Protein 1
Amino acid sequence: MEIDQMESGANGAGGGGFRLARCWELLCSAAGMLRGKVVGFARKLGRIARDDPRRVAHSFKVGLALTLVSVLYYVRPLFNNWGVSTMWAVLTTVVVMEYTVGGTLCKGLNRAFGTLVAGFIAVGAHKVAYLCGDKAEPVLLAIFVFLLSSAATFSRFIPEVKARYDYGVTIFILTFSLVAVSSYRVDELIRLAHQRFSTIVVGVATCLCTTIFVFPVWAGEDLHKLAIGNLNKLAEFFEGIESECFRENATFENLEAKPFLQVYKTVLNSKATEDSLCNFAKWEPCHGKFKFRHPWSHYQKLGALSRQCASSMEALASYVITLTRTEYPEAHPELCLEVRTACRQMSLHSAKALRELSAAMRMVTLPSQANVHMSAAIKAAKGLRDELAEDADLVQAMHVAVIASLLSDLVTKTKQITESVDILARLARFKNPENTQKDVGINVVS
Amino acid sequence: MEIDQMESGANGAGGGGFRLARCWELLCSAAGMLRGKVVGFARKLGRIARDDPRRVAHSFKVGLALTLVSVLYYVRPLFNNWGVSTMWAVLTTVVVMEYTVGGTLCKGLNRAFGTLVAGFIAVGAHKVAYLCGDKAEPVLLAIFVFLLSSAATFSRFIPEVKARYDYGVTIFILTFSLVAVSSYRVDELIRLAHQRFSTIVVGVATCLCTTIFVFPVWAGEDLHKLAIGNLNKLAEFFEGIESECFRENATFENLEAKPFLQVYKTVLNSKATEDSLCNFAKWEPCHGKFKFRHPWSHYQKLGALSRQCASSMEALASYVITLTRTEYPEAHPELCLEVRTACRQMSLHSAKALRELSAAMRMVTLPSQANVHMSAAIKAAKGLRDELAEDADLVQAMHVAVIASLLSDLVTKTKQITESVDILARLARFKNPENTQKDVGINVVS
């Protein structure tokens, strides 16, 4: 028994040692995993910062603005009479400070005007309610709050209001409710409203100064750069397709991996960024190359055209990729050479025209050379059309062929959609229609 | 002279009468214009309300929630000890109340957790600063505010944080700055923080109750409906092109005015709505047909495929429209009949498959019939390909023809872009490059 105990003790000690080692191992691996995660996260942060260093600057700018406003609290002699109201300056700074100058201006002005208008109306509402006696006052005020906040909320569904004054309407509702609900006397209210408004102005002014004078980020400039970037991406597609598909020694090989067949995709998804930048750019004063009343809305039209062009590119790209997946038949040599030369001219000159446009936009000069390249591209397209027109049978076959092949491309896309819905139905455990019909049958029978 | 005076007097009187009449006319026309504007505006509001009556319900819900919270102010015995803090309940209600349940939940939870975390950290910061003595305290607190708000602002650039916790981070910065800046003692702070947090909870709870129990608008349901709507729109395009282009008596006439060639455009622009609905849907509890952990992200994949399909449709639509603009040549009768029949089969069955998918999604059943239609469409496409493959010359011509015609379509789109940049350059008064070169030349000479 003693031996047994000893053995079990030895076993226990051995087991304990083993367990300790195991624990240590687990701890080490956990630490390793944690370290890996931290390193991965740090790399991600580094990438975000490197992608656009202005983000780091913006973060420090927010810190700076907040610290500046906070210091106001400590400079007692200057702002002592404001008291708790200084809180509103801090609140304003946090909420109003946006990445772009236009965003900050939009929010700042919306906040200031929303507060002002709501303050006036609320004081008026208080006076009216006061006249109606002690009992009716709270009931009347509650009715006012209900009606005005409902009406203001509904106004946010008007697209124009939503685009430019959404934040102002929120602040309007907020201020009106706060003032209407507060049980101060009217003269006290006016003093308070005055204090609150001036602190908000101080907050907005601090934000604007930091955002305009410390590494400013102009929404207008970003919008201009976005348009230039889109033009360059479209040009890259033309250049890629020229060199990979229409050059003499072009092989159509390994196309799927080529970056030029992916580059137009970011253009397709640029609408949301463009809309918000355009909205903010309209609030900005003249700066750099951009004068007062710069035609910002026109960038949206240009963007829509760029996206249309990108979606045609998607159709072409998907056709070219399917073509390389099936064997590419050795085409009729003469016809092919002619068409190939014309295609090469079309893509080459279109690319040059787009590069010219983007260069002209970057330099803010008139794009005079682009039209020359464009004419050459159109001439090549027309030449091809005329040449083919000589062979009437071919033209007929061609029209039918294009429609048929675009349509069969659409069939492939629809098939992908069907598969996607199938996966969704399985993931979300949709019911089996037969079972449902059975259930209905049983219900009818019973 | 008297006569003169009299005449001028008469003139004056006549002129006065004339002026009065003119004024009256102007006033009338102004009133008429104003009336027209008011009527137009009212019609617009009516249209917005009719488009989605839930908007009206939402407006009244906001009014109701705000009135409920305001009433808390007046029920003195219950909430007397909260005092000014009740303001935070009103503030929370205004800011947190969103159109969808998911949006309100997202903002409400973000607000509550942001406040809680920031409150704890801020109290800790206060204790640390207090230990370092009277002089160092404000300096240390300012440094804390600067560092934490910069770091938190930078974290908003991480895509995952931006998508789900953006509002929470804003509230974190806000609360931390407010608490850090306030010059209360720590025990007083904790009492205040407790009050503030409970008022925020009351605000969030009021919002949630109103948003969930009074005509709830579920983001998940809207996302599901958006996907169904997109499928129906794609089906409509197939049906339209089948009836207008591939039927026996199809004329290809007046195609531009047909609605089916516009319907896919809303699908192309659905990404922003889809992303925000998907983000909110993830916050929602199970409701109606949707169980807990419904695969919401999959809707984004389905949406991306739908948009790809729509952009192929755009390419086909623009090709068909250009074709009708130039004369449509009478095509080779036999070939045309064969291809036309195949095209008709492809579009008919694709449309049926899409309708089947959308019906299955609406009923939340497995889309079993869609695969049958899809197979028929693919079979038609394959049959056409095989039939054409018999004539090797034709296939070769076809591939080249498709690429060439897609490319010439791209040239047309690029030309539109060139024109658009030209207009932009004129509107924004871009410089003439020659003048600039001259300027440079002069500068070099001087």
Note: Chain B touches chain A through 157 residues (CB under 8 Å).
Protein 2
Amino acid sequence: MNNEALKRKLYIVIFESDTPAGKAFDILLICCILFSVSIVILETVPGLPTYLATPFIILEYVFTGFFTFEYLTRIYCSPHPKKYIFSFFGIIDLLATLPLYLVFLVPSLRHLLIIRAFRLIRVFRVFKLFNFLMEGQMLLRALRQSSKKIAVFFFFVVILVTSIGTLMYMIEGSRPDSQFDNIPNSIYWAIVTMTTVGYGDITPVTPMGKMLSAFVMLLGYTIIAVPTGIVSVSMMKEYRRQQNVECPNCHKSGHEETAAYCKYCGTKLNEHQSHPS
Amino acid sequence: MNNEALKRKLYIVIFESDTPAGKAFDILLICCILFSVSIVILETVPGLPTYLATPFIILEYVFTGFFTFEYLTRIYCSPHPKKYIFSFFGIIDLLATLPLYLVFLVPSLRHLLIIRAFRLIRVFRVFKLFNFLMEGQMLLRALRQSSKKIAVFFFFVVILVTSIGTLMYMIEGSRPDSQFDNIPNSIYWAIVTMTTVGYGDITPVTPMGKMLSAFVMLLGYTIIAVPTGIVSVSMMKEYRRQQNVECPNCHKSGHEETAAYCKYCGTKLNEHQSHPS
Amino acid sequence: MNNEALKRKLYIVIFESDTPAGKAFDILLICCILFSVSIVILETVPGLPTYLATPFIILEYVFTGFFTFEYLTRIYCSPHPKKYIFSFFGIIDLLATLPLYLVFLVPSLRHLLIIRAFRLIRVFRVFKLFNFLMEGQMLLRALRQSSKKIAVFFFFVVILVTSIGTLMYMIEGSRPDSQFDNIPNSIYWAIVTMTTVGYGDITPVTPMGKMLSAFVMLLGYTIIAVPTGIVSVSMMKEYRRQQNVECPNCHKSGHEETAAYCKYCGTKLNEHQSHPS
Amino acid sequence: MNNEALKRKLYIVIFESDTPAGKAFDILLICCILFSVSIVILETVPGLPTYLATPFIILEYVFTGFFTFEYLTRIYCSPHPKKYIFSFFGIIDLLATLPLYLVFLVPSLRHLLIIRAFRLIRVFRVFKLFNFLMEGQMLLRALRQSSKKIAVFFFFVVILVTSIGTLMYMIEGSRPDSQFDNIPNSIYWAIVTMTTVGYGDITPVTPMGKMLSAFVMLLGYTIIAVPTGIVSVSMMKEYRRQQNVECPNCHKSGHEETAAYCKYCGTKLNEHQSHPS
């Protein structure tokens, strides 16, 4: 019984953010995340004073210890531990602590601590930014709806850049000191060009190569319209669907995009659920 | 009484542009702004004849004096001085004069005089380009409506480029003379690549780095579709909302996008207000 | 009378392309344009055999003579010479002949002969590609409708890049050998970055400069969504308007996008006019 | 008769993928394609151990032999050989074997074996990814609908880059060591800039050149909105058309986007046909 009471109390503090203690804990957590991510980034900057190296390493262990303790407590006090462990946030929380333990095996893995940055997504829950969460969920729904179209699109883009890269290798590859000295490099060039990134580290020099290059650019210029069109249409659909949300009580629709309650009778609309932990 | 009459007269000349004097003043003001902005830009060009240096500095003080005098007069003759001071244009007007006074403290601040360029927004009011103003306001409304979605989007983009930058640092950072020599630089590279800018000042050289790079480009190619989709849908909504503007007199809707008066009964539509000073 | 008959005959051959003679003349004209444009481009290529130089110059004079003669004949046989002279095609036709005459004044103007390329727009009329013309006109209408919004957008972009360029000059301009050595160069950099072109000829090197740069890129990433949104909405509107074209005879609407005749009663729809010469 | 039975059996194995044998054959085929494409790419990588060269060449002949045999068998067992030969997949299948036979004439053609990658499109059929196929077909329909608009758009882009390239050649071409040393190079630069690729291999150095360059970038920034707008509107239309698919039996519409059967009476909707071969 005492155990159960402790669990419930811990649950309220760690998982919820409505009580003062819960909110304080969440804000502390966010500060720790921001601070530990900053350390991971800063310790790679060359001009850093050497006397900071040791404190940084100590802090890293302290934060990892704290996050590990927090992760274990979350599992302990969660009413459905398995559900938490395999939820999106559960996996992120685990990945945010693991890298430091793996350092003993592969030292360079330490920088993976940056995964902690993803824990910051909690910020929306803590500061009651539910509207933002809903916008984010609407974006995700729109992207998920169009994921098949985008997958097909990428499949063709991959075949296209492979072919264009090979063609470019055939055109420019035989020149001495050519930058297109193998097909993987040429495919890399084709992707750089088609996506309009255009680093300029690999560029054609022959007239034929420049012509193919110009053609690829104009193609990429048009093709970039396809994912944009797909996403725009998905969002438009999502927006219409949302306008048609029907109140479960009075059966009226046409609610505001971010409405949580029916504007006619005040019933909670089950379309916009709050964020699942 | 005499004081009040002077105030009203000044108000008409400075704030309004319907009278010949008001219009003349506004045109003079716009010329001064254009001229002073040109001086700020030109005086940094290396090949400039040296005999121009002194006149340029004198002109800068003359313009700043004029703008300061104008700013004080605006405060003096405004019926609600506080409202003016804290309005968008009030703050711009203040910032357009301050930098020269701060030169005595920090010399390089002089170039901030460029803020004057923002005063040019008045040009729309002076030349009665109300239609343009309305288009601008419609754009702003559409952007404001989608600001939450865009904020969520940017939050994820920031987490994403941080993670990708760190991953790239782990892949290429250990090579001698690597350009990815610290995580902030790698994050900068991730932003340059994801936004399809692609300077080419930092580029991957290892096969693994090129593969990650190609992946980031294709990701950026799709992700660029998200803000475009958001803004397109917002504009579409804004356009529909505008078509539904109801005349306050005859309650008919379906007016033209830029209509200021009801086309059925001539009543002023309160949807499109003229620009607030 | 004889004169009038000649005029009419010439008009049919030169302006129209329904008779065999008219079509033959138009195809000859298009070949001449393509050939003369190719010469203008080719004669600048370094590796060209020298024995081609003289024939190229002679051909240029021959083509210019032919185009001049054609231009004068068009004026002669046009029923409304003034209307032709000041029409879009009339001005293009004039500009396509002038540069060679100006060579005696300014030799480098010869390359302006490239303006002839615009005469190729006739190709749509000659080959009865009316559908393409209509699509082009629909595009133009959509762009014209959104021209005010785009103008306002560009006004703000110009103020923005001026301010960002000046800020960058303040951050990096004082370093020795800085590429941001004057404000016009920095504004040029701001435009290169904001439009996601990213040549990489001018890049920031200080941490502060890189941070501003990253911010400008993310800004440009969002701002690029605005013209796309504007144009998408315009096209959607244009498409809806077209669906609402009402037949002047049977007053039914809902015609196909490229329909020239009412599908219910066969009356010509006055929405899609053929190209005005 | 025996011959016919063999034909039918072969047809089921090679063309269909519903029987275990058919599916096994298709999976074997996809593995062979992936493997042979990987060889074409890998054998160009410089650091490859030399002892792999001979096995790679042998494997290439083995795969080409297998694909040739498969192609001939497909012709043999197809009920309409001509229809297969001139279908999209028939031509791809032929092109996937030809290059190696042409090596005796032109050795460098070997790399065209990469065309095999296009055979991978079968992957959708094999794994019953019909939904993906339908999405792909919807994308293609939307692109085909907008092909005329895009063609007109490209016609103008080509004229525009030709003119801009020539103008740039006139501005910067006369400088010693200029990168704009001939008009084709300048046109290539104009395309690189307008499409926002921005390699940076050719960049303007004079103030006039930079001004033209900035103008072209801002133009390209707006013009990129046109194909995006075209494709977005096409997709929106396609989506609406699909919602209006009428069931041939019960004449009800409003089906899901990817529905193959009427949701009211179960009749097959003839809008979404399965992939032709």
Note: The longest helix of chain A spans residues 147-172.
Protein 3
Amino acid sequence: MKIAILGYGNLAKGVESAVRQNKDMELKYVFTRRDPAGVKVNTDGVIVKSVDEILNYKQDIDVLVICGGSATDLPEMTPKYAKDFNVIDSFDTHARIPEHFANVDKAAKENGHTALISCGWDPGMFSLLRLYGNAILPEGQDYTFWGKGVSQGHSDAIRRVKGVKNGKQYTIPVQSALESVRNGENPTLTTRQKHTRECFVVAEEGADLAQIEHDIKTMPNYFDEYDTTVHFISEEEFNRDHKEIPHGGFVFRSGVTGFDKEHKHVIEYSLKLDSNPEFTASVLLAYARAIFRLNNEGVTGCKTVFDIAPAYLTPLSGEEIRAHLL
Amino acid sequence: MKIAILGYGNLAKGVESAVRQNKDMELKYVFTRRDPAGVKVNTDGVIVKSVDEILNYKQDIDVLVICGGSATDLPEMTPKYAKDFNVIDSFDTHARIPEHFANVDKAAKENGHTALISCGWDPGMFSLLRLYGNAILPEGQDYTFWGKGVSQGHSDAIRRVKGVKNGKQYTIPVQSALESVRNGENPTLTTRQKHTRECFVVAEEGADLAQIEHDIKTMPNYFDEYDTTVHFISEEEFNRDHKEIPHGGFVFRSGVTGFDKEHKHVIEYSLKLDSNPEFTASVLLAYARAIFRLNNEGVTGCKTVFDIAPAYLTPLSGEEIRAHLL
């Protein structure tokens, strides 16, 4: 399978490194909106080109992995490139998924391609676990917790506060809430009861630290509904301890069965990830394999993780997975 | 969807109660090898018939859920009934899955039916999680732990010991082993290091308790490779505290990503089940829905959980699951 990447940020680098772990795949191209001369990739033999030239390489690409931002890039890019390629993206603006799906489906179907949107871990693996949980236990409750991990959006918000030189925000699930769900107590949880937010801030010299802390903790939508902790640290500490992009979380389905609904069941799925973009990239590649295979079978249009039979994700044969994984 | 059950043990009763939780399903028949007059079901309107008459009801059954034993019943029954029905079973003799699959596949394909074997939680949901984990993190290790829960096979083995009137065995994962895997330490674990076995025994009057304990703890294959605890209890305690059939377990995939494989990731899936047969039955019904739909689409032959796109498991539409679960 010949893979190409559009973009070259953290997610794209995750795809680049993950291709090396999948023996049936080869990374052929990185397409960039920047000057290609300024983009140095980590893999010998990979050709870097301007995205303006992408159609010239159409015949040599099995799946194009689109590594753009959900806010503005992907709603434009994925439908556009679905006309000429099998494409996959990690679109994660939940409210706009139906619209994005329709646009990508139309472009892919009209041109005989296969696309998959909203891939990764949430949306992605967490969505799958919610679906499996609901199908198996129709009478029950869903819970999703995120973290411990870095929220890019909240870190950006901190850095916009006056007097802040650098900052990073960790979302942390509340342990007692996790335990209550795990014990099948089916608690009703407020926003504040589910997650706390921990901020590490490098202040500018002479900045008013009390004011910074106040501005962060009261910020509407981002922090005001949470218990937030603010730690001021030096630039050295920041660079030493907060360079990584870990994340993770928990999906629970808690339900009942029995003639008198007397038996409780708790299904729990959790991820503990040292690198959010590299794990997301690893999920994208497994699904890239699936859409390439589906396209070869003549299945076209837009798919989500819900539409993909798990066997399509692995390079192993049906005989092998039945013998070793079933 | 019209459901019929073959057999009427614990698993079948689980299917009977789970049908009530699935609004698109109706339980029409229970077929038994016993005298049907002696089988009292829990649901009004369900018709109990001898299995000898099953072909008379062929036109009124969408999926036949075969609730037999893996050792001798299912290898005979599932291929036999796949000739006349869409069928599903919970065949769990791992070593014989390839042979069972081939037999069922032939019978189902030749007669235009759809079958699914080895459904439940292990094999079943645990298998799926192993497949997803391997596809996403190709470089890593799998771990499966079972418990805390009742092992039927080990309980049967205890009851065969001289001087034992009744007995139940719980399989318990070793907490320190779970923690080590959860921390991404990738331990190499012996059988003894993964699980302990706890036995609750009602002895016959005047039995030699020390001899019973010795006979259990040294029993080859069942107990000799484990740290086993034996508790002697009264019949009253047994009936009060050990009537339920709980189970559960953990599946982990622990792997690495990154150009230097410098990032660790741990995927964990766990089940905590008050009733093993009722949960297994709930999984069976979700997959019964899937094979009925696939059969309507003209897809025939034998499937496993690996072959079923998750969207087929839920009564919700594609639009609904994309809007609410993705």
Note: The CA atoms of residues 1 and 312 of chain B lie 14 Å apart.
Protein 4
Amino acid sequence: MLRNLKVLLAARPNGSVAHTDFSIVEEEVARPGAGEILLRNRYLSIDPYMRVRMNEGRSYAANLAIGDVMVGDTVAEVIQSLNPEFKVGDLATGRLGWQRFAISDGSNLRRIDPSLGPVSANLGILGMPGITAWYGTLKIGRPAAGETVVIGAASGAVGSAAGQIAKLHGCRVIGIAGGERKCRHVVDELGFDACIDHRQQDFAGALAKAVGAGIDIYFDTVGGAILDAVLPLCKPNARIPLCGMIADYDSIERYGIKNLYSAIANRVTLQGFIISDHAELWPAAVTDLAGWIASGAITYRETVAQGLDQAPQALIDLLRGGNVGKQIVKID
Amino acid sequence: MLRNLKVLLAARPNGSVAHTDFSIVEEEVARPGAGEILLRNRYLSIDPYMRVRMNEGRSYAANLAIGDVMVGDTVAEVIQSLNPEFKVGDLATGRLGWQRFAISDGSNLRRIDPSLGPVSANLGILGMPGITAWYGTLKIGRPAAGETVVIGAASGAVGSAAGQIAKLHGCRVIGIAGGERKCRHVVDELGFDACIDHRQQDFAGALAKAVGAGIDIYFDTVGGAILDAVLPLCKPNARIPLCGMIADYDSIERYGIKNLYSAIANRVTLQGFIISDHAELWPAAVTDLAGWIASGAITYRETVAQGLDQAPQALIDLLRGGNVGKQIVKID
């Protein structure tokens, strides 16, 4: 008899996420009904948005209830199928949650092409984070050769891809990351032109010096004090794709942005987006990204935690900025 | 001998503008040189941006130096001309400053067509504020019939025009203003569907109730706490033209915007703009606005202070929200 392992939301975090906000339960795996599929999750993606879903109320999607399985995308393998569209051994990604097994009618699954790269990459560079980077950089940022692009959380899954995509389009790319180790990775391995450590004392001064004549595009997954430092450095008609505010997620009190006046003075456009709105563009994005990986034009890194019981720690680490590249959990 | 009267910046305001930040001087009028024009200013426009120019440093244009004539647009009459393009009696607007007389080579002047309306309207509905409302509403807001539009500072020169333009395009328009008198004006005279007093205790709750299903366009000249109340009420793909942050201008400490995360969750675009960037569109805007005034489709109001020595008080009043409609000064 297969036993399922599930990580549930046990309590809403009070500021930072704690282990006591989760509970791990074991139960019998349900049987798939007519038209359904039983999947075994192989990899779980750990992403900043999960922190938002742990709160009360709703954001752009409904938040979790206490006792719900934690939300998350996985790479999964079909192990039993009562659905003619899927056969045993097929690989797919979907929002199947923090659990070892899941049942689906197939409607929430996206089939994986294993020839495009390691299957786990479908949670990172070939999945939601990579596609977010592609869309925000190209469709909102609209980079022109010679422009200056600044990337918040440059060593993360989204930022590392966004900066490399901007480089491919002829931009000068400056990353922002926390700590020397990450900054070295961003310059030496990802090929950014520079990376500014936001933990240094005069961060705003160092950023201003690095950008020189000003910022044309700021790819923002961070918000907070970093956005406040960026706004006065923007050039006329700068674009800021907004897709995350990780600086605020784990705080009780949100940061107040004081430099929004610069968005007027510098004619800046800030545009919030949610990548799931743009499903029609995913195939084009994946084709681009897979091509760039295959040719070596862009690279990516994963931080892998071993075992589903390590998922809470992986999320805690991510929110503290502990990961380099895409944070995933390998599920036994 | 003609005597000029000038209002100079005497000191930089420490927070709120005070009378001691200005000095009034009298001097002989200079003579126009070859190709130049001597103009007598008839009306001075009082606008929120002036407060920004009184600060140290620079914004989107250079700020004033201590001792400079205060910056401002006027309606002026040519009284002597050594420039073949202008003859005595011609009327023009230009950034000629807080003074009774000014000399120009003509390059900074825009000719007035007195058939379009009272000449003072070229400082309001037919000038920078009206054109700002036209551009922000139509080019950034892009209103569709049936959409819900919220207007900050709805009784002011820009807001009153923006809301009426949105009404003309079939929108439901909700104003925000300070105090019952202004709110009555906005509904009864300007024809907005509702107006919310931002001085009431539960302003955010009252606004939420008035907007119902959510905001499609927020025309922002205010920033601050009102923008923070608006962001969570935005519908998906809402547009926010940003052209002023009057809430901050007169403060020492700027307000920190805490709800920018809602711009992601609600897929909001915030776009800063400066109307002087779009000079090529001014003739089209003035044609539209003059037509709407002539047909009675839109209306406007002026608050007129008498005498150049009243200009400092007029700016102080404006920044405190004392005016209804366009604040101007009639220069003797």
Note: Residues 35 and 84 of chain A are 8 Å apart (CA to CA).
